[in-house]
Specification:
With 228 residues, this protein is an alpha/beta fold. The chain folds into two domains: 139 residues, Rossmann fold, CATH 3.40.50.1000; 74 residues, Transcription Termination Factor Rho, Rna-binding Domain, Chain A, Domain 1, CATH 1.10.720. Helices cover 48% and strands 11% of the residues. The chain has a six-stranded parallel β-sheet, sandwiched between helices. The longest helix has 22 residues. It is globular.
Length: 228
């Protein structure tokens, strides 16, 4: 056991939530509704600015075609993530969507927060989408547990600079921050930025163990390893 960090920053896909939920439920839901959504919400400033950015990044290609291609490739592109979040918000509001996390996640987060550990999310999904996921769980709305959310607006998850930006925003030394993810390249970037790291190796998601990082099978294991 090692000393507990002052704050934990967690990834979502493959860490708190099954990859299949994101790829087999959320992604198709957004993909299928894109044309009607863009037509109905064309005057919405957030939608209009995102579509304009899509057009800038892929000129001469219909935005829907570009966006669907990005969804298929799981591209970490900010306008796509913004639009997906807006579509999912409608799905959650209508009851079409219900989010999920692994059963060990919420009990662990509640214990960590009660112990004084500050909790954050860093995901390539938009900040709005992150909040939607954690507010529409069968366990209830657990967004109150988190002190903040970070998305691709701070930078790519495999970029060392992103973790430096997050550390500055949180206001803690990098060595007091623990990053949880299933992806080796993300953990490598966080470690290079001075963070502590732990790979969450979910058997259901077929996560490959990464050298150079402590590993836990679930959030219970993370808690035991880091003393909270």
């Amino acid at each position: 056991m090692t000393s507990p960090p002052a704050a934990v920053v967690t990834d979502i896909e493959g860490t708190t939530t099954r990859i299949a939920f994101v790829h087999d439920i959320l992604f198709p839901y957004a993909r299928d509704r894109l044309p009607a959504f863009l037509a109905a919400r064309a005057s919405d400033p957030a939608v209009a600015s995102s579509v304009a950015e899509v057009t800038r990044l892929a000129p001469g290609v219909p935005p829907v075609e570009t966006l669907r291609g990005w969804i298929k490739a799981d591209a970490k592109v900010t306008p796509l993530k913004t639009l997906q979040g807006l579509i999912w918000a409608e799905g959650y509001a209508s009851g079409d969507l219900r989010s999920e996390v692994y059963p060990d996640v919420v009990p662990a987060l509640r214990r960590w927060r009660a112990a004084g550990v500050r909790l954050y999310v860093y995901s390539s999904g938009s900040e709005a989408a992150q909040k939607q996921l954690f507010s529409h769980l069968p366990e209830g709305d657990v967004t109150v547990l988190f002190s903040g959310y970070f998305d691709t607006n701070v930078g790519a998850k495999r970029d060392i600079g992103s973790y430096r930006t997050i550390a500055t925003a949180i206001g803690l030394p990098a060595g007091e921050l623990l990053f949880l993810s299933d992806v080796a390249a993300e953990l490598d970037a966080a470690l290079a930025g001075g963070w502590r790291t732990c790979q969450v190796v979910r058997a259901e998601d077929g996560t490959r163990a990464a050298a150079g990082h402590p590993q836990a099978r679930d959030f219970e294991g993370v808690g035991r390893m880091f003393g909270f």
